[in-house]
User: Which sequence fits this backbone?
């Protein structure tokens, strides 16, 4: 008898989302196309709207879950990095999800707001670790262990190719995947500060810890990976890359909505709700 695989609630959620997306690719493609159309309104606009859009997607189409957008309420004080609270209805387990909408390439997994990772690595007293026991001991320290509790859901886009995807990086797998941790001196690619690279058994890049004290800009520090360089360490939730088109009707709708009344908004919502209910019904009967 084969033992069942023990999954975290977030791992189960992403598998359920992947299964749904595989059976209903048109729905996830439509939502992602609309989200990345929002870049036409502003380079950072799509990130906030992605949180709202994915929350609604979960509520409309994943009957085993419900979601709440908490990015503007509970977590903006930076006591936590999550944006969406997902509840699995079967057991009421709650999953705090940090949604990242980034272009393909460098991807920040954690801001390391307490600035503990880089000083810990600097305190090793040597520029390279390749001993399996030393690496295991290091990555089992609380400074790294708590990172495995982060549930990061990245929405990645390639703007020049008009492609996007949902893909996840398993932070909790770092201890088993890391064979080398090494310090990379500043100077390459215009870097002013050193970084620590994590490499797998083939010498391929997994992720990195960037320089930065507590007073540093959040983009100067923390745990980062790269959706291009570390592609083998990501799992697609969508069926590979999705080709999307800009929905110019949506941008026009936003412009009109900002200049119309709540009564008009209510009328506009009626056919949208009917369409969403039909799509949700059809997805359950497929």
Assistant:
């Amino acid at each position: 008898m084969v033992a069942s695989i023990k999954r975290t609630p977030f791992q189960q959620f992403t598998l359920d989302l992947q299964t749904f997306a595989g059976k209903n690719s048109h729905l996830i493609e439509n939502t992602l196309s609309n989200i990345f159309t929002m870049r036409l309104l502003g380079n950072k606009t799509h990130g906030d709207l992605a949180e709202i859009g994915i929350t609604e997607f979960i509520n409309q189409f994943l009957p085993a879950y419900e979601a709440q957008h908490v990015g503007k309420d509970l977590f903006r004080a930076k006591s936590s990095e999550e944006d969406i609270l997902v509840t699995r209805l079967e057991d009421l387990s709650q999953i705090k999800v940090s949604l990242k909408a980034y272009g393909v390439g460098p991807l920040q997994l954690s801001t390391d707001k307490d600035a503990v990772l880089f000083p810990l690595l600097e305190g090793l007293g040597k520029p390279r670790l390749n001993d399996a026991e030393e690496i295991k001991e290091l990555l089992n320290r609380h400074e790294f262990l708590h990172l495995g509790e982060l549930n990061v859901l990245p929405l990645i886009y390639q703007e020049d190719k008009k492609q996007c995807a949902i893909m996840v990086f398993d932070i909790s797998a770092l201890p088993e995947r890391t064979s080398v941790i090494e310090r990379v001196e500043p100077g390459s690619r215009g870097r002013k500060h050193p970084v620590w690279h994590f490499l797998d058994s083939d010498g391929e890049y997994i992720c990195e810890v960037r320089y930065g004290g507590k007073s540093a800009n959040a983009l100067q520090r923390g745990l980062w990976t790269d959706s291009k360089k570390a592609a083998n360490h990501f799992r697609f939730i969508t069926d590979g890359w999705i080709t999307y088109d800009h929905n110019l009707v949506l941008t026009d709708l936003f412009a009109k909505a900002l200049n119309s009344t709540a009564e008009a908004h209510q009328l506009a919502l009626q056919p949208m709700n009917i369409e969403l209910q039909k799509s949700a019904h059809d997805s359950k009967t497929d």
Remarks:
- The chain has nine helices and 13 strands.
- The first strand starts at residue 65 and ends at 69.
- The chain has one domain: 9-246.
- The radius of gyration is 21 Å.
